[in-house]
Design goal:
Length: about 180
């Protein structure tokens, strides 16, 4: 079990990391990876799970970004065009079927139950809505977080009753998934 899995552990980690996060993040999660994901966004009502400092969705004016860490949201705030919510996305306080898309760019692998989390996100999607995820695939990071193989991702979306439309390798360091309700 990775040491940063679960809300409490993720909180401890990102509270410390928030000060330097924006300096290191673009080297790992590059602008090109972000563009690949953003090209697939459908609709205006987008939920960014683990929005962090807003790197992925800051320019979308109807986006809602949720994060556990106040320090990350404070950094997102000056540029974020949508709205920001402090909270745990596994207990997300949103109306069922109120989003066109849910984005988990670097966040799904912190949840205790990734299948449970995806099931919850599915409930927030309108019929035909999509979930877009980016998850790292470096085995060595398994000490810290969940590391999913392709077959794990296939199983997560199948068990959450989502139709996986894309599962692709990104720069040899991550998997990108697009799944439809
Ligand atoms: C690697 S960062 C990704 C940030 C952002 N998505 C980006 O594009 O740079 C992961 C973020 O997920 C957040 N997070 C982890 N578990 C969460 C949960 N259960 N609910 C809300 N946010 C969570 C962390 O606080 C952290 O800010």
């Amino acid at each position: 079990m990775g040491i940063f899995i679960g809300s409490k552990n993720a909180q401890r980690f990102f509270k410390r990391l928030s000060r330097i996060y924006d300096r290191i993040n673009p080297y790992i999660y590059t602008a090109e990876m972000r563009e690949t994901l953003l090209k697939d966004v459908e609709g205006e009502h987008v939920l960014d799970v683990g929005v962090g400092t807003g790197y992925t969705t800051k320019h979308l004016d109807k986006a809602v970004g949720i994060d556990l860490i106040k320090e990350m949201l404070l950094r997102a705030k000056p540029e974020y065009m949508g709205s920001l919510v402090l909270g745990d996305a596994s207990k997300a306080p949103f109306k069922p079927q109120s989003f066109d898309a849910v984005i988990c760019a670097g966040s799904l692998y912190y949840f205790n139950s990734p299948i449970g989390a995806v099931k919850g996100f599915r409930g927030l999607l309108r019929k035909g809505g999509i979930i877009l995820t980016i998850t790292p695939n470096w085995r060595i990071l398994g000490v810290f977080v969940h590391i999913f193989k392709k077959k794990d991702l296939q199983e997560i979306f199948r068990k959450a009753d989502m139709h996986l439309e894309k599962l692709q390798n990104m720069r040899g360091i991550a998997y990108y998934c697009k799944a439809r309700r």
